[in-house]
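Q: My labmate handed me this sequence with no annotations at all. I'd like to see what the chain might look like in three dimensions before we decide whether it's worth expressing. Could you predict it?
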Amino acid sequence: MVIVWRYALRLGVVLACVTGAALAQAGPAQAAFSTRLSGLPERFTAGGEVRTVSAVVSRTDGGCVKVRWSLVLTVRDIRLDQVKVDRVEEDGSFPLQIRTDGDVARLTDRQLDPGTLCPGRTVTARYRVAFAEDIDRGRVTLAAEAYDARLRLLSRQAATRTVVGAEATPSESAPEPTGSVAEPTEPASAGGDEETGASEEPLAAEPAAGAGRSVSGSGGFGTVQAAFLLGGLLLSLGLGLLLRLRHLTRTSGAADEDEAVPDGRWPSPGGYRRREPVRW
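A: Here is what I predict for the chain of 280 residues:
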């Protein structure tokens, strides 16, 4: 029974050390990607004003990957048909797959971005955004998501801005623009699809909106901290198992010695009687 406990404890220590090391390395790998939004005005003005918003993704280590962009557009107090978004590259418009669900629209690239993401290099997606003239006031949230070729979320960044009508006076008070990471939205049903562009490459699968937040876009207690904490707990568990194993080994050795010599003494020579020869 003691031997079984020894092997079980050894196996537990090995599993704890391997799991802690794997979790400690997984956190920094996710934090290697970051996304930022540039070109955002303090507020959008309706009535034909076109703004170019850029999403830039970068990485600090690892190899090179291809990127597929997906933009999640959420509106409040305005309608989606009052918003015009065009994904552009140097040679013109970029083909998109558009899905809508209520006040949320997802615009996903049908093709991989022409650029390649490597350490020290970035990949940029540019969007031209405009609003209809019949908007009085509303809010819009733009969330740029960068995926790899296998549709795994690399990084995500979002920002919220106010949309005002063209006739709004400067004296009108407007809420301050805020930057945040919006909650991922569920993809809509296939009935709401709209296709743009020619020679479109079909998507293998729609990027899952619930794939999670990027470590760089969220604050507080993130994945890296949780991984290191769990790794430390597992290492502490392994140390405790080692101490327990050492205690069991000493206890077992002492028990074996007690069984070998119960009274702690060897039998004295006088305890044996000499057999007398038999005379005939």
